[in-house]
């Protein structure tokens, strides 16, 4: 099948389906190369998360890494007011809202993956957000019509085959070389979480750890996910060193939490301003790094509102973020990873272990009152 284009519009591309039943079929739209990479990784992630936790899962993918991943659960007041005021969404819609709310700046124009068939409620919600497509194990008849009409028919609708199981070995051609390896099929179960170095691991942290393990397995390495309440708050992806992964994930989690600050959450509505534009202004306030031009525009749009949260107030508010679980796809090599994590409300750390300085990492966890779990399983993904 010919694709719309390759990784870039000037590259022609096609895909060859395996004999027999393929892993997916195109219901509507025309996929690009990256669309399929996002969809296939996203589908594997939500299927793994749902199998590990027994809950509905959703993921928002951009450039072959998730911007957010979440399980079904209640919306907090800020997410409710932003995405679906006055409504009580079902599990599937709630899971997607929770994952999109994790990093709405990155989720703009995403590829969506959900673990359950798409119902009309989710289809109607998606009609009001900017997204490129969705992959799911099925669709209600009325849902397909609503989705296929999105983006004047360009919205991509893909049906995944839940019964498809990939071959045991996977191949990739790079610069004329054919690389082959055993597929990473190690099960993600709570049996990975039994080597607790110090401190208790409550059931809620077990759920968050399993979700995080599924997330980092399908995130470009090096990767770290911060998870709380069954949803990612920040994902650090594709970094060349571990501490930058932690710092990036922590910065995103801080932005998520600061968006709940009364002054940011209560930013006045402006007539004619889209939801995404208002979200962008809230995130700029949370980031605390507006340019001179943005400050001037803020003053014009929101007269009387102060765009600056003082350092002392930021620190006070951020101290309220807690019970966060950090999951790393590789071992944490130094204690500075723990020091940065502690500033983002991390109380549980799940990592493979095996660093030459594992004792230093364990000591830092004890010092900061953080529970440390070593899985013995590395989950690199490239």
How many strands in all?
14
Q: What is the global morphology?
A: globular
Distance between the termini: 24 Å
- Mean pLDDT across all residues, rounded? 95
pLDDT < 50 stretches: none
Structural class: alpha/beta
The strand line-up of the biggest sheet is 1-6-5-4-2-3
Which percent band covers the strand fraction? 15-25%
Query: For the record, what CATH class of the largest domain applies?
Result: Alpha Beta
Q: Say what the CATH topology of the largest domain is.
A: Cytidine Deaminase, domain 2
Q: Would you identify the CATH architecture of the largest domain?
A: 3-Layer(aba) Sandwich
Count of discrete structural domains: 3
Helix fraction?
25-40%
Continuous helix count: 14
Q: Describe the largest sheet.
A: 6 strands, mixed
Order of helices and strands: EHEEHHHEHEHEEEEHEEHHHHHEHEHE
Rg over CA atoms: 21 Å
